UniProtKB/TrEMBL annotation:
Residues 45-79 are annotated as: Disordered. The lineage of its organism: Bacteria, Bacillati, Actinomycetota, Actinomycetes, Pseudonocardiales. Gene3D superfamilies: Met repressor-like (1.10.1220.10). InterPro entries: Arc_rbn_hlx_hlx (IPR013321), Ribbon_hlx_hlx (IPR010985). It comes from the Bacteria. This is Toxin-antitoxin system HicB family antitoxin. Residues 62-79 have a biased composition (Basic and acidic residues).
C-alpha cells in the first residue's frame, strides 16, 4: 500500500465533537470517520480516482477454518 499522507485540518470545536461522537457510534476513530466521509463524498460527486485503494477492513481478521479435521479435538468428527 502506498504511504499515507498526513494533513493538518483545522475544525470548529463543535464540528470536531460531532465527528468524534459519530465516529464512536460507528466504532471508528475520528480520523477514519473523516476519511470515510471524504471518500463517500468524492464517490458521490464522481471524483474518486479509479486507482484509489480500498479502505482498510474494519474489525478483527476472521479465523481461518481448519482445512481438514486434523485440528479438531478427538471425538468431534462428523461422519
Amino acid at each position: 500500500m502506498a504511504e499515507r499522507k498526513s494533513v493538518l485540518l483545522r475544525l470548529d470545536p463543535a464540528v470536531h465533537d460531532a465527528l468524534s461522537r459519530w465516529a464512536s457510534d460507528e466504532l471508528r476513530s475520528t480520523n477514519a470517520q473523516i476519511e470515510f466521509l471524504l471518500r463517500r463524498a468524492l464517490a458521490e460527486a464522481g471524483r474518486l480516482p479509479s486507482g484509489t485503494a480500498a479502505p482498510p477492513k474494519r474489525g478483527r481478521p476472521r479465523k481461518s477454518e481448519p482445512a481438514s479435521g486434523e485440528d479438531r479435538p478427538a471425538g468431534t468428527d462428523r461422519g
